[in-house]
Amino acid sequence: MPSTRGVSGVTLRDFLSAVLSGLGAPVTENNLAKLGAVARVEGHGGNYNPFNYVVAAPGSTDFNSVGVQNYPDAATGITMTVKLLRGSRESQKRMLASLMANDTYSTFIHAAQDFYNSWGGADGARLLGGTASERALQKLTEQVDGPPGSLSGVTPGPPYDPTRWANAQEGAFGAWLGTQDAGTQQQIIDRLRGANGDLGAIAGILNDPNTNQATRDYINYLAQLDKSGQGAALGRLGVQSRDPGPSSPTPAPSPELTDLLRSLGVSYPNAPQPTPALMAFLRGVGLNLDSAAALRERAVQRIGASMSDAMSDIDRQAGREKQNITADLVRRGVLSSGESNTRYARQAEDVGEQKTDVLTTGGNAKEDVQTAYDQAVSAARQQALDRVIGAETDQATAAASAKAATDAMTKAQQQAELDYARQRAAQEDAVRQTIGAQRGYAERGAAV
What is the CA radius of gyration of the chain? Predict the structure, then answer.
């Protein structure tokens, strides 16, 4: 379905207001400007898709070859935009936190620039940096691309709940606390409880260079509560079981691979789990060894046959030579003389030497065949061993990489929670200041 522009009847302001409601974030000019900046950078795109999201939904079609979607109606477009803003990337979490806290326009833009850069959208990041909030708000007067429609059927999101600020603050500190050992956790908790209400003790904690940011943020959170609220928050602290984070299980040994290696003459107890490619390679090594053994047997048989033939030839030639000697001795009448004994002995000696040469040559040939076979077997077994060790090393590297990625993700999540808590604290502080100012005006009889 081609994109139909400017006739949807749904303004970008109304569309993005519904998105904020769907997120449970405050619908303010500040938050609308943040989203309007992204829509301004994205320009025109798919139907009911001002952020040019590429994830399909029921009834959606491709707008272009990149996969930007045409969403069938406003309700679907709003739902998918909410899904985009609730993404799992660290920069997306910061964008969402900025909207939830209704914090500064620049905070959101920086997070959005990081999001663009995370997938290679450097041009978008640059354009966002040059988009002032005033120009972003001007974008809200335009209509969302798409066929005629309305916001009917759009389900309002949950109302903004300021109590989530407190939950986020305590949750973020608790998440960090759980990364410490039990003794360290108890020391931190005791120090915080001991400083409750003592400004000097609190100042000592904040001025201590060893105090981490999570503890500083938690103290700032406590400072915004009344006395009873501080006591209740501190009372909820407790030592937690240290969470080492998920780890990649070590693969169980493979009896199948151990047995296969044993059949190749390689002793490798507790061999690692094989891949299909590794098993195919090792079976190929086995076939090569079988072929080498068959070649050796055939070579030995040929050498044996050649030796047998050579011995027969020597015996035949020796027989003929002996007949010739006897005939010569008879002709000359010296058959029983010493000459006959000498000639017969010399001929027997020559026959013995010839047979010895045949046996020596054949034995050497068989040794050469066996040496070549042994070398082939040794090379094949070394190849098999090297390949298995390589597979085991790859598995260990993959497990270590998976653990490192998990640890990095855990740290990023903890940082996101801390960022979220800080933004909540800033928002609550602004709300408290506004309420305090309004009360002051009311006490003076001024209209508010």
Answer: 44
